[in-house]
Predict the 3D structure of the following.
Amino acid sequence: MTPSSDIFLTNQTEDQPPELPQQQEPFPGGSVETLLYLLEQAIAYSGTGIVISDAILPDNPIIYCNRAFEKITGYSRNEIIGRNCRFLQGADTDPIAIEQVSTSIREGNTCQVVLKNYRKDGTPFWNELKISPVRDTKGRVIHYIGAQTDITERVLATQARTIAQTALKQSETKYRDLVEMSQDLIWSTDQEGRFTFVNSAAKRILGYEPEEMIGHTFTDFQPPEQQQQGWEVYQKILAAQSYYQYETVQLHSDGKPVHISFNAIVLHDEVGLVLGTTGIGRDITESKRAEVALLHSQTFLNSVLDNLPVGVCCKNASDLRFAFCNKTCEELLGFSRQDVLGKNDYDLFPQEQADFFTSIDREVLRNGKLVDIPEEQIQTGHQELRILHTRKIPLLDAQGTPEYLLAITEDITERKQIETQLRKSEELYRTIAKNFPNGAVVLFDSDCRYTLAEGTDLEVVGCCKDKEFLEGKTLHETLTPETSELLEPYFHAALAGIENVFEVPYRDSRFCGDSFASRIYKVHTLPVRNENGEITAGMMMTQNITERKQAEEALLAQLCMEALRADVHLALTQKATLQQSLQLCAETIVRHLDAAFARIWILNSEEDVLELQASAGMYTHIDGPHSRVRVGEFKIGMIAQKRQPHLSNTVQDDPRISDREWAKREGMVAFAGYPLLVEEKLVGVMAMFFTKPLCEAKQIGLFTVANAIALNIEHKRTTEALSETEAKLQKLAANMPGMIYRFLLRPDGLISFPYMSPGCRELYELEPEAAQSDVSLVYNLIHPDDLQEHKDSVALSAQTLQPWYWEGRMYTASGKLKWIQGASRPELQANGDIIWDGLLMDITERKTAEEALRYKTTQLEQTLKELQHTQLQLVQSEKMSGLGQLVAGVAHEINNPVNFIYGNLVHTEEYTQDLLYLLSLYQQHYPHPVPEIQEEAETIDLDFLLEDLPKMLTSMKLGAERIREIVLSLRNFSRLDEAQVKPVDIHEGIDSTLLILHNRLKAKPESPGIQVIKEYSDLPLVECYPGQLNQVFMNILVNAIDALEVGIADWVLGTGDKGLGKNSSNPQSLIPNPQSPAPEIRICTEALNAQSVVIKIKDNGSGMTANVRSRLFDPFFTTKTVGKGTGLGLSISYQIITQKHGGVLKCFSEPGQGAEFWIEIPICQN
């Protein structure tokens, strides 16, 4: 390390910098050491963290750091030197930035990144790191300098700002959504009362789109008779400049009144000037209807109460002033209803009597329980003294706070007078005792032993059949422990001179089973005195008041059920979701019937499962095992399955209650479950538990409640389904391609568009409102050439009432041409109007695609034809190739033995001449042979043999030469070795073909031959495909021979009868007819010019019609009978000449003039 680097890397640990070193050499501004020293001090005291690492050492260790780096990281210099900078990184340090740093060090480049690192104490910090390489004179990287700036505060501030902006955006979105999703009308107006903002609830409440209301005053939507009052209220709001609440009536778009409760407040600008008002309007139409229904219910209830035989009155719990009294109560009190209402007891009765009544009332309100006052004496308004039996009970509000005090009282004055008379006369007592109706009278002594018992209901005192059973028995010996313990104090009180009247529910299964379980007796215990007034015994009178109690309970139940039905109706008519309405109903049932809890399920018909929607009382959750009950499962599912209610006042013994231990533990007594039915259709189940018996009146009343809830469920479902359907239809209409419309034609010919979907903008480039207001805008866009057809189609549909369908062209407002398809169905209205509901679609793309498809189809058909032609040509070529191979093979096989025969014939001829010469010598020198030789010579006719044998050899030689010529022709025709273009002699190919066809050309016993006339010109060698060109010659010549053979009969007979051809049985028919020309084929060749040659093949057959000639080269076209040809020969020949050789193949023919084929091919192929 150089001295300068030692100075540079010295890290000062004290605040005071060292003295300047001595200058070693002059330098502008100071020596090098001085400058290095100053640079070191500048880095050391810089606020930016500086580190230097050694790029040559492994892992690039830190060799220098300044004080700012120590301060930023919290590490000392000794803890830093020798380590890689990675020791500051944490698990959440940005891996992309780390990779960027690694890449920069690896490639020796400068980079700048932001990293999240960690100090020595573990706290995170963000630093902006810039790394720069230091190179030596050779360009090698020897060090890296890293400058780090702590930007933690800036990063945290940026994050906080981002979070705040996100929260603000979410808040704005939330409140904007809340305004649009609100079921209440939210609005703003200017000072003139014109709407400046209306939310989407306007459509639901008033039937207007918000855009239809903006700019109009609020009075424009009020009935005329309320507009002045509405404007006065608006002026009060602006004047008061405070919160204002009022109710008014607005008009729906369909003209129906809508009751709305408005809450309004004044809007101000920044300087306090009034801009207008804003507020919320709630639709209270249903509430108003419910109030009317409640008013009718109250009228009915008042009528019932006025006809009760007992007095009924209510006091306000707050001040104990009378709020209600029925007609019987008026008669009992001696005051009219007008004199009583609003008054308290002190306004009607004497002080002492009022104090008694008030103390009892406050006790009832304080304890919250029913209080029975057997006797209370009052002075009526008629100054009469009456004795009343009164029951008082508090009526609680929704929060469980007493709101009213209900009192039911009966006049017992006469009964008390009778009791007094009974005490005066024992005889009268005995008579009454023996005939005491619905009760019993007993006497007991000081030991509480019965001494006498009379009456019809002795069960209450312990005797069922024989009253003698009681005499001499005590309470504990005759009654149940519970009853005896209840009565004993009253017996002792009577013996002590205290008279008591009370009620006792009685049940003693030892005598009467369960039939008397619900009996209630009124018991009167009193002392019996002798003439001296001494108490000698006690007396107990019991009276069966079960029916009266039941009547009272039925009345209370009826009142309760009326209130319940009213509150249920109110809950069901509120603007709430179905689940919210059902929850209110459950809470109302619990509150009015004092149910332990109540629940309502709705049937999921798809899964056949009851789903819990509402629960109130001791259980308010709607999850758990009973949240989904399958039909037929548990008691709830059985009610749904049987569609019959299940009612029980003995829950703890009810077999349908699955958990009877729970019922006993919770004290459950009664259960009522009802199926929710709408015209025999199950929609749900309603069920509730009670801790006390449920009377029959309430059981019956709950039927109507269940029916109301069932109807509401069905109504809500129907309404929700309708709303969902409407929303879907509106969305469908808005999103459906094309335009949904309604077209109206009146009897007078006027037309209009009552409805156009938003698709009108895309289809016509017109606003729906503009097109609806002026129908001509639409009709003027129809293409002039299609307009009349459009009108005719509408007229025809109107006349026949058949569906309308039309396709045509139109121009958009911008002049763009479109194809339109329309379809609709007409409907004749009662007033003669015809309405078409239908759809118009832009089918321009389809039309374009169809045109393209037609073009492609044409191309495809053409390609298919070409493919078929090619395929057929390949087949025919393969066939001809096979035929060529066969012909070549036959020629080869024949050629070998023929050559052998022909070669041997030469030697045979020589040998024969030698033998004949030798024989001639024998004849000359031996003129007289032996008889045996002479005889054999005669036998074999030696002279004839000598004459004929040379002739026979000559004939054999000619035959062999003929066979060689045929073989050569076959080889020339097949041309297996000439598949490529090569110069050939055209005449050789024609002659080879004729040689092959020689058998069909020559004369036969049944037909004359066909003469072939050759008119060859001097032609040069022609470049062609020899084999294919021979195939063309073959096809044309075969067709010519076929045509000539058909006409041979005409040449033979001259009759035109084609039936006498080669199958004629008349041998004389072969005599030529001089009137018909002999069949012939003329073949001419010539060179048109230096570029092409022509071969013309002409026959003198029957010729052909223009129709046949036009289709001559079509594939599969033939005039021959089935099995005589495929119709491919000339088609393939045409392809060979025109496509393979670039030539021309034509046919000239007229009926009766024969046919001439013109073959023109170039001499040289390009």
Summary: The radius of gyration is 64 Å. Residues 1 and 162 are 50 Å apart (CA to CA). Residues 1-27, 509-517, 1051-1072 have pLDDT under 50 and may be disordered. The first helix runs from residue 3 to 9.
